[in-house]
Amino acid sequence: MSVLNHILDTYAQFFNWEMWGEVLTSPVSWGLIGTLVILEGLLSADNALVLAVMVKHLPPKKRKKALFYGLLGAYTFRFIAIGIGVFLIKLWWVKILGAGYLAWLSIKYFIDKRKSAEGDSDEAEGMNQSGMLIRLFGTFWGTVVAVELMDIAFSVDSVLAAFGVSEQVWVLLIGGMLGVLMMRGVAGLFLTLIDRVPELETSAYILILIIALKMLLAAVNIEMGHLTFFIILLVTFGATFIVHFMNKKKGEEKENSL
């Protein structure tokens, strides 16, 4: 019963206007919000592309409906995940599992990137029209269920990343809401940004690895301060743009030499 009370207390904090007043007047809070915006935006760009591919076999009007139903489910799942997660993240072994999962996501990205560079990866294809979900629920609702499941998978990544940034309830709430909004509304802008600065995608997964380390340290009662985290963030993105301009310069020199 105490667990249920703890979770209900967490949800009650969502409506604590005094807490929100303190949050919105704190420079550190805005720094954390900015971190979440960047992280969610970069991660959601690829996620949005995957969802667009999944619904491309539907007529245009039904594509929007399928994505909208997935959006409702994503918000519901994140709201539940945040309430339960605030309780679970207090347990040291949950932090270790979360850190391990985030580290695996980052390592998997670099492994997949290497395979892609070697020409081993396949291009993204639309949803399998003879898949089990399509057979069970029909073309439209089968696609909705598939989008829903994919949204939940993306939500797990985002919620865990938000927990790594901070365990404060408002950080988790804003992170959860931003993740869905980014995936549906602003993902196109970040896709364009990644097209112009491809190194940003790599930086996002380096940041996830750093967040995994931060979460792992928290499991053994070693806290990475906000200032330290922000400095690492600035150095990471500063290095990203330096590498980008160096690669761009090398590319221009190579073109000129041909």
Count of strand segments: 0
Strand content: under 5%
Unreliable segments (pLDDT under 50, ≥5 consecutive)? none
The average pLDDT score comes to 76
Question: What profile does the largest beta sheet have?
Answer: none
Q: Helix segment count?
A: 9
Using the alpha-carbon principal axes, give the shape: globular
Distance between the termini: 72 Å
Structural class comes to mainly alpha
Give me the strand/helix succession. HHHHHHHHH
Q: How big is the Rg?
A: 20 Å
Share in helix: over 70%
How would you describe this structure to a colleague?
- The protein has 258 residues and is mostly helical.
- The chain has nine helices and no strands.
- The chain has helices at residues 2-13, 17-24, 27-54, 60-88, 92-117, 132-165, 169-196, 199-219, 226-257.
- The model has no long low-confidence stretch (mean pLDDT 76).
Short account of what is shown:
The chain has 258 residues and is mainly α.
Feature tags:
single chain; 258 residues; mainly alpha; globular
Lay out the secondary structure.
Blueprint (H helix, E strand, L loop, with lengths): L1 H12 L3 H8 L2 H28 L5 H29 L3 H26 L14 H34 L3 H28 L2 H21 L6 H32 L1
